[in-house]
Structures
1.
Amino acid sequence: MRLNFVAAALSAFVLLASPAFAQSEEDVMERIEKLHGQSKAFGEAFSQLQDAFLLGDPTSIADLGSYPFEVAANGELYDIFAPEDLVDNFDTLLTQETIDGLSSQDYGDLIVTSEGVGFANGALWMSLVCADDTCADASWGIIRINN
């Protein structure tokens, strides 16, 4: 009897420790809408970002930045103040592993939290950034890159 309890507890622990299964695109959109709003605008930013990574276009990636933001790379933290900072140092700031992960990001595998939306297991984060205190004018922007 005690052995069955231990086996059941161990099975429950393994299930809880396992990574979550991919969600549907609709589930992700619903969660983004619930936590942030403007899920359709996020979908457009997602497509722009993924296209830019697939095409190797640092300028289009930089256009999605919410400046200033930080990039963790090479064991250091870099402050990115303007699009040119990202474009001019792109090869140093983003590893090939990060680029590959972002290029092949599945919508259902996005991380959605109250802080933003994470790509490639948290290698890049986007959030809805308000232009003023009323947040009437807002857009999705890159707020952090982690290698």
2.
Amino acid sequence: MFKNELVFPNFDCTDRDDFFEKISTVLVEKGYVKETFKQAIKQREDEYPTGLRTVPYHVAIPHTDPVNICKPFIAVIRPTKRIEFLEMGSDDKRVDAQLLFILGLKRGEGQTALLQKLIEMFMQREVMDQLLKESNQADIIRLLKKTVA
């Protein structure tokens, strides 16, 4: 589900709304999501925040219902500046995410195992350091496949 065209090592956006606007446009243009995706992911993030206060770096894993997805994917985004998300399970604690993983899954099967592997990866300093430094999309994909697969 990791693809070079969905790895964005220097994604320029000003805040969470700008991020959702820009990434939704890209995902629609590439045929991964439906036009309904942008509104759906914003609404779901408002209702069920996805920011994670993981050590060593904060991340977010925004996602939405399968009805908005055309083909399964995981987009990996490293914004040029940290993006503020609400912490998962909270309505007032904020995290400044340095890495964002948009999960575009068609069905719930395997989602729990995937999330577990991602969260385990988020806590591996060496891997996360590499993800924050690496600019080559293919190298990022190789690291993700080695760590999460």
